Amino acid sequence: MFKALVLEQADKVTTASIQQLDVSQLPEGDVLIDVDYSSLNYKDGLAITGKGRIVRDFPMVPGVDLTGTVAESSDTRYTVGQKVVLTGWGVGEGHWGGMAQKARLNADWLVPLPEALSGDQAMKIGTAGLTAMLCVQALQGAGITPEKGEILVTGASGGVGSVAVTLLGVLGYQVAAVTGRASENGEWLKSLGASRIAERSEFDEPARPLEKQLWAGAIDTVGSKMLAKVLAQTHYDGAVAACGLAGGFDLPTTVMPFILRGVKLLGVDSVNAPYERRQKAWKRIAELLPASYYDQGCREISLEEVAEAAEAITLGQITGRVVIKL
Fold this sequence. Notes:
By secondary structure, this protein is of the alpha/beta class. The chain is built from nine helices and 15 strands. Strands 3, 4, 5, 6, 7, 14 and 15 form a seven-stranded mixed β-sheet that branches. A six-stranded parallel β-sheet has the order 10-9-8-11-12-13, sandwiched between helices. The chain is globular. The protein starts with a strand and ends with a strand.
């Protein structure tokens, strides 16, 4: 038997409860994992509260991230006792996820845990950190170097944003971090690596087709009007890595930034990223993130505290990363 957070639905109302389950109840997969840690992402929050149509089949164990130890494996790539990490692949949405003490998973979804990282550190990174690293690598691939100018990070107080600020700072970029809670989070973001803080209200006005060129590049976690504004303010030959839609999935912009300034819009996905790309990103994160990040940007909770934290993250009340100890 093992403990799990289980989502059920009746009359379109989602409920979350902690239950004792048997290993035989787990879905099919190549590898059985003893889960050490999971984490709470925005998507998890939507699933647990029922505020977003994330889960379509019930019952479901949420948790898009997990790290743990291989207990059984029918795949030769993984051996008993090996430490692994999983992010994405629809786990926690269509396949039971990380908010349980055991998980059975497809071997193709796993990545060996880098030796430089502990399990809790990996979850302090999680999908958010992996996405942030992929965004940074996308900007680098587009030729955006520190010498080109300032980089904007929107939604900087969130999981993706806070890791992006840290990584960019370590790599020598000047970072402007956008937050709607500058009085609460400004000094924290500067301690992570931000050069300055930009108030979210500065981006409230609808974007003109082209505006003053301010950013050599940007990492956008918000989408919608925010992304349109950022594109209109990006330098000639600049690039914007877009990875989120917290502000909406529409994009009220024009082709002007793209055809008159050569701005590149780079879509970044971590959910189905190929194995080699994920492995390289994890390795790079382990090399770059300073020890201070794990202390400053994260907090740990128990499974019993997840429901309350899930509500808070959907209301924008969570700063940094939340790790769940199983």
